[in-house]
Structure formats: C-alpha cells, structure tokens
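agent> fetching stored inputs for the phosphoenolpyruvate docking request
agent> found them:
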Amino acid sequence: MIIVVSPDATPDDLDHIVARVEETGRTAHLSVGTERSIIGVIGPDDPTLQDVFEALPHVESVHRVTKPYKLVSRDFHPADTIVEVGQGVTVGGVELAVMAGPCSIENEAHIFDAARAVKAAGANMLRGGAYKPRSSPYAFRGLGPEGLAYLAAAGAESGLPVITELMSVRDIDAVCRYTDVIQVGARNMQNFILLDEVGKVKKPVMLKRALSGQIEEWLLAAEYILAQGNPNVILCERGIRTFETAYRNTFDVNAIPLVKELSHLPVIADPSHGTGKVGLVTPVAMAGIAAGADGLMIEVHNSPEHALSDGAQSLTYEKFGIMMRSVAAVAAAVERTLTGVRTPAAVR
Ligand code: PEP
Ligand code: MN
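agent> prediction call returned; pasting tokens
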C-alpha cells in the first residue's frame, strides 16, 4: 500500500502517520519528495487498512500496489536512486558510469596496465573478475583472493573505484574488504541466500540479469537485497538467451526503458556479454545509452586473443577509446555527460 501525504505535512505529521502504520504491525518506508512525500507500507495485504490510513490527518490518498515488488518500484520511491560508489563516483545521475577492464584479473602487471588504459580513455570504474563463473570446470576460474588484492591496488593507483564478482557467500568478507561494488553475476541472480547476504552489507551491489531472467524476476531479486536493508543496488542488463545463435546473447534494449519506468534503481548496459562479439560492442553500447542506461560495463584487454576469458568480446585499449568517443556523442544527445572523454568535436 502507498500513502501519499499532502505537501503541507510537517515532519511531526509524517512521524505520526509512520507510527500509525507501525501500530498495525507493518513497516513504513518514507520517501520524502520535493512536492509530496510517500509512505510505502510493507506487510500482509489488508484492504480494510485503506480506509484507516485515508482517515489520518494530512493523508491525500492511499493506493494498493498490485506489483509483487515494492521497495524497488517507482510507486514507492518516485525519484531516481543515485548510488555512491566511492572516490566521488556515482551511478544514476547525469554523469554516466563506465566500468571497464578485463573479464578476469590475470596477473598484477596486467590489471595495473588495464587500469591506466581505461582511466586514460575516460572510464570512471575498474572491473575485473577474481572468481569467474565458467561453463567448464577446466577453464581459468580466476586468481581468487590474490586477484582481489591486485584489483584493489590497481584501482587505488589509478584513482578508480573497483567492481568484482562475488559468487559465493563463502567469499563475502574477502570481496567486501577489497571492492567498492559487489557484482552478483547472471548465474546467481536467483541465488536467494547470496542476495540476502549482500543485502546485509552496505556496499553497493550490481545485480546482473539472469540468462533467462524475466524483468519481474530480476526486480524481485533486487527486492531481496533492499528488503535486507541495502538500498544501494544497481541493475545490469547483460543480454538474455534466445533462439539466436549468431551472437552469444541477445542484448535486450527494451529492458532499459522498461526497468527505468518500473524502478528507481540505476541501470547499466553490458554490451560485452550482451553480444559476445567485439564488432557489436560499440553500436550496442551507443544503443544502451540512447535507451536511457545510466552507464556501461565494458570488457577491455590489451591483447584479446590472449585473454584468459571472454577475449572474443573484449575491446583493445584503442577500440575502447574510440567507443568512448562514440558513446560521448550519444550521451550529449540524451543530455548525459561523460566528463573524462573528449568528444569527437573536441578532438578535432
Ligand atoms: C562478467 O562480468 O565477467 C560475467 C561473468 O558476467 P555475467 O554474469 O553477466 O555472465
Ligand atoms: Mn566476462
């Protein structure tokens, strides 16, 4: 249920309404807006409470919410959420967030080199996996804790906050110690125990859409994290599995404006996993930003043919620089900024 409070309500009036909600055994989530404040009521649905809340002073209207997710929905929280990830970087504002780096952290020198290269091209976050979900148990599965330390050191040297994947609750302390943003990968979108645990920490979490995840399932997965008390959630569209085999995944550009309409959480586009093909990454990155994404996740490697994972979709440093300039031009058209990038006009 959502309680819309009239603009003349004082903080004391809001407290009174919240107290009345809590007396019914439900939880109240207050979202103070510039025009109106909204109180989201979480708990068992009881239609008779609509009249009870409507009779309270300063209550303008009360609506029942039929969607299964609540805290992530725009109904509960009309304003965009802006997630602060550290070192002055935010995800969800006018400035786009660009997370770039290799699929896997391969060794110390390699991640330092990648950090400098992506920073020079205008990225504002460094990515790299230390725990890799691989289809084959014989493939490179990441350096584990050693890789986390290299990533954090490379991020510190280049002044970039870092993001890395957490695959198991087993590694949550190590990952939290070294990372600024915890990535929950596509294969773990519905690992509900993992979602509960990342909900109990305050670090931002980037939740990737599952290979066959429906929008509602994805938003409900995010709801798990918010329901545990962590509001710092970023969504990431990384392509879904369809009948098409000409590319690795089908990047679902529709999902971006739809999720932005349904939810206040920021959304990142990942055209690297979303296409699996290096030649498609730049056009799909541009499409993602044009569709309203709040940023990008891009895999970059100095020598993609030697990459220990996902070489086929990794941009060279040079191609990444070109991509950033193309994306900056689209960003300007949709009134977003990429301050680290010189636009093609400025380059000339
Ligand atoms: C990754 O970011 O390297 C990754 C494994 O992503 P996804 O979970 O989307 O496959
Ligand atoms: Mn990858």
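agent> quick read of the result: The first helix runs from residue 11 to 23.
agent> awaiting further instructions
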